[in-house]
């Protein structure tokens, strides 16, 4: 928004101007919290705002004439910037003129030379008074001290400006009075009015009765503001009807022309050529000078003409980019349209040369929006993603409409702050873990891993086991987990025969607010070890006795005596069983199938065969190392089942001729016989 205040110049410090909070509809209590500040291009801060009440007061008296020089309207522009949210208000202070300056003349006194032979009605230009005030407070009229020879008359130039002329009312007589002293008074229209006086000394001459006359009363010219020294502006020309030295004209700037303009321009005294004499360091589009033409008579006569020089602007100023406010970093979840920065772009050239276009690169998620005059807002145009781009270097390009145009660039560095908008992501859809049974307690099983592209606490991932049961027991009785790195450890030894596989879920959660999480299924497969020996199911013994099988006395060859049946709780090759005869009382009578465990006769039974036989069967798995079990089977050859089973502690085979006992008896007998023979031999020797 925009608000305009009016204030008279020279208003004392502390004087109230208004209440900015009330005038703009702002809560005065929020001014400090919203970091209010006033921005102006002026070198001085003429106004203050009370942060508690919003009262606007004068900080320093304003001198309108010093601030705005000859401008008809004097305006001070301020911008009020508020943050949270970012708002910009434009304030204009119209400085009203007061009558604080009296009219003054450039010189302390003026001299006019008049030939005595001039007729009544002759006119002489008088100097204009200068009053720094404007409007009605400037010079309004002139008066002349009473004199019988002169009176004052106002004249109007071609451009409408007025100037005083001294008119001869009565012929002069130098012999009676050679000098006339007059007082010219200039009055302004203030209330009360102010005035300024200057003495006008008229010297009566008796020669040179014609003054030079310009061809034009007002000369107009136009030059470029960057014109080099020596550039011709205009050539003035005046004629003098007198002859000889009295008709020779010399040109110069009038004393009423300011010293600054006389330094910028020079005029040739003989040709009347006005040229550029230095750098045109002015900020006004129109310059006004008075040129005087004076003849070379003994008492030179002069006349003046006005020269108006229009300074044509050249595009010699580039746009100036100022960052008034910048918010960085900004969260990545900022909605489109969020204001990032407030820019002020100003070109000191007037007209088209001072008009500026502003843009940024099209491939950025930002755009420039015009705000108040010469202000732009840098806003987001789409959603941001810090994980894709964490910072932006935005180059702002401002180009004026001059010919050739001038371009200025300024870089704005905007960082994107992280928002917890990404949940952890596991490296796979599921994890399979293989572990051997009989593992040690605390054994490392697996390490799950999840990544989170967020940073800081938003990207720090912790892991937990989701509550579940395995084989009727809580999961936490089987496993434990490192919360920081996702390592999984066994809390008990697994038994393949009891639990072959199970699954559970691991949850990965970041430390953002609110926290985001993801879960994954972990399948645990327990591999078998050869930790179970074969179990013999048949035949079985009771109370430590040997299992007995009855075979017909004259059974045929390949008769099925029995089938050894065994089972192994292990899996795969650890449960592959083979059957072997470890011992047989008659190795020629029985054979055992290694794959089926069938015990059969190898030939037909004979009547001479022993009635009792005993075989030992070994059942062995294919594990590494292999485990085995044995079973002893007693075989009774009988056609009918006896009422009482015989004792199979001995095999029923004939004892061998040379067993350990027999050998012992034979050795003992041999020793005794040898000793007895030796004794007899000894006795015989003695007798002989």
From TrEMBL:
Protein localization: Cell membrane
InterPro entries found in the cross-reference section: Cadherin-like_dom, Cadherin-like_sf, Cadherin_CS, Cadherin_N, Protocadherin/Cadherin-CA
Keywords of the record: Calcium, Cell adhesion, Cell membrane, Glycoprotein, Membrane, Repeat, Signal, Transmembrane, Transmembrane helix
Superkingdom in the source lineage: Eukaryota
Topological type in the membrane: Single-pass type I membrane protein
GO molecular function: calcium ion binding
GO cellular component, one term: plasma membrane
Pfam families found in the cross-reference section: Cadherin, Cadherin_2
Function of the molecule: Potential calcium-dependent cell-adhesion protein. May be involved in the establishment and maintenance of specific neuronal connections in the brain.
PANTHER family: CADHERIN-87A, PROTOCADHERIN ALPHA-C1
Protein name as catalogued: PCDC1 protein
Source species of the chain: Mystacornis crossleyi
Gene of this entry: Pcdhac1
């Amino acid at each position: 928004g925009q608000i305009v205040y009016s204030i008279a110049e020279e208003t004392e410090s502390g004087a109230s101007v208004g209440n900015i909070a009330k005038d703009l509809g702002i809560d005065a209590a929020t001014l400090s919290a919203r970091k209010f500040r006033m921005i102006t291009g002026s070198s001085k801060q003429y106004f203050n705002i009370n942060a508690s009440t919003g009262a606007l007061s004068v900080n320093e008296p304003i001198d309108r004439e010093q601030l705005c020089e000859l401008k008809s309207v004097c305006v001070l522009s301020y911008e009020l910037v508020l943050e949270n949210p970012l708002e910009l208000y434009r304030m204009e202070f119209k400085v009203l003129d007061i009558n604080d300056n009296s009219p003054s003349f450039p010189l302390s006194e003026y001299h006019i030379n008049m030939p005595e032979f001039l007729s009544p009605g002759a006119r002489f230009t008088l100097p204009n008074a200068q009053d720094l005030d404007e409007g009605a407070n400037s010079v309004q009229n002139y008066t002349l001290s009473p004199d019988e020879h002169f009176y004052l008359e106002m004249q109007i130039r071609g451009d409408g400006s007025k100037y005083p002329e001294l008119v001869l009312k009565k012929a002069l007589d130098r012999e009676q009075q050679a000098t006339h002293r007059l007082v010219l008074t200039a009055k302004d229209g203030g209330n009360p009015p102010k005035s300024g006086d200057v003495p006008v000394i008229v010297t009566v001459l008796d020669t040179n009765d014609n003054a030079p006359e310009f061809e034009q009363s007002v000369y107009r010219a136009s030059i470029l503001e960057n014109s080099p020294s020596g550039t011709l502006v205009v050539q003035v020309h005046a004629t003098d009807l007198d002859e000889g030295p009295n008709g020779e004209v010399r040109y110069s700037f009038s004393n009423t022309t300011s010293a600054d303009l006389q330094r910028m321009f020079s005029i040739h005294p003989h040709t009347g050529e006005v040229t550029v004499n230095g750098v045109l360091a002015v900020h006004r589009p129109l310059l006004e000078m008075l040129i005087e033409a004076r003849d070379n008579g003994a008492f030179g006569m002069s006349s003046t003409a006005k020269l108006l020089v229009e300074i044509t602007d050249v595009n010699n100023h580039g746009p100036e980019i100022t960052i008034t406010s910048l918010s960085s970093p900004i969260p990545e979840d900022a909605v489109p349209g969020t204001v990032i920065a407030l820019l002020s772009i100003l070109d000191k050239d007037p007209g088209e040369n001072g008009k500026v276009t502003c843009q940024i690169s099209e491939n950025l998620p930002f755009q420039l929006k015009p705000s108040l005059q010469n202000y732009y807002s840098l806003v987001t145009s789409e959603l941001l993603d810090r994980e894709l781009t964490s910072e932006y270097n935005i180059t702002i390009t401002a180009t004026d409409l001059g010919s050739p145009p001038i371009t200025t660039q300024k870089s704005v560095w905007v960082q994107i702050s992280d928002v917890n908008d990404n949940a952890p992501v596991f490296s796979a859809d599921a994890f399979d873990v293989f572990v051997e049974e009989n593992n040690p307690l605390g054994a490392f099983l697996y390490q799950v891993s999840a990544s989170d592209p967020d940073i800081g606490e938003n990207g720090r991932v912790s892991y937990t086991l989701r509550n579940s049961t395995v084989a009727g027991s809580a999961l936490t009785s089987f496993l434990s987990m490192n919360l920081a790195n996702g390592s999984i450890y066994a809390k008990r030894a697994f038994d393949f025969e009891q639990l072959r596989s199970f699954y559970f879920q691991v949850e990965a959660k970041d430390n953002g607010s609110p926290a985001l999480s993801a879960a994954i299924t972990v399948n645990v497969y327990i591999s078998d070890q050869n930790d179970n020996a074969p179990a013999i199911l048949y035949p079985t013994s009771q109370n430590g006795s040997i299992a007995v099988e009855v075979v017909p006395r004259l059974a045929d060859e390949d008769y099925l005596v029995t089938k050894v049946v065994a089972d192994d709780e292990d899996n795969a090759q650890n449960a592959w069983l083979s059957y072997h005869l470890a011992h047989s009382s008659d190795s020629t009578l029985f054979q055992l199938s290694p794959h089926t465990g069938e015990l059969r006769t190898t030939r037909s039974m004979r009547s001479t065969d022993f009635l009792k036989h005993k075989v030992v069967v070994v059942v062995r798995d294919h594990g590494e190392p292999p485990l085995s079990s044995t079973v002893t089977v007693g075989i009774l050859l009988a056609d009918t089942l006896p009422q009482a089973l015989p004792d199979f502690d001995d095999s029923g085979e004939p004892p061998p001729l040379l067993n350990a006992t027999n050998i012992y008896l034979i050795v003992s007998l041999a020793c005794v016989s040898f000793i007895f023979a030796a004794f007899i031999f000894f006795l015989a020797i003695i007798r002989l």
